[in-house]
Amino acid sequence: MLISELAAAGGVKVSSIRFYERRGLLAAPHRTSGGYREYDDADVTRVRYLKRGQELGFTLAELGALLEVTGVSGPLSGEVTALGRAKLVEVDQRIADLVRMRAALAGLLDAQCVEPDVPCPVMGALASSEAFA
Asked: How far is CA 20 from CA 24, 26, 50, 62, 69, in A?
C-alpha cells in the first residue's frame, strides 16, 4: 500500500508517517521501481500502536522504549507493566494538577469584578507573585 493508504488506515496524516520513519519508529519502507514507498499490514499495526499510545499519554520516546522491550517471542511483561505503571502515576499527577487548577480558577471566578476602582480579583491573582492554593 502507498503512504497515503497507510496514513488513512492508521488514522494519521502522511506527515506523521514520515516523522515516524525519521524517528526510527517505523522502518524505512521498500520502494517501488518508481520510487514510491510500499507498506504492508504490519506497518498499519505499528502506526495504530503509535497513535493509540499517544492517545493514552505516552510520548514517542516512551513508545519507542516499549517497542525495544518487545522481543521476538513477545513483550517482556514485567518491563511493559513497569512502564505502564509509571505512565499511570504520571497521568494521576496530571489529573491532580488539573483538579487543583480548576479549583483555583473557580475560586477566582467566584470573586466578582464589581468595583470599578478596585482591580478585578482574577486580574489581581494572575499578576500576583503568590502561588495558587
From this structure: 6, 5, 9, 13, 18
Q: What is the pLDDT of residues 52-84, one digit of tens each?
A: 999 999 999 999 888 887 654 555 667 788 888
CATH of domain 1-58: 1.10.1660.10
Cα separation, 99 vs 31, whole angstroms: 50
Contact of 13 with 7, CB cutoff 8 Å: yes
Q: Give per-residue pLDDT as tens, 33-58.
A: 988 889 999 999 999 999 999 999 99
Contact 41, 47 (CB under 8 A): no
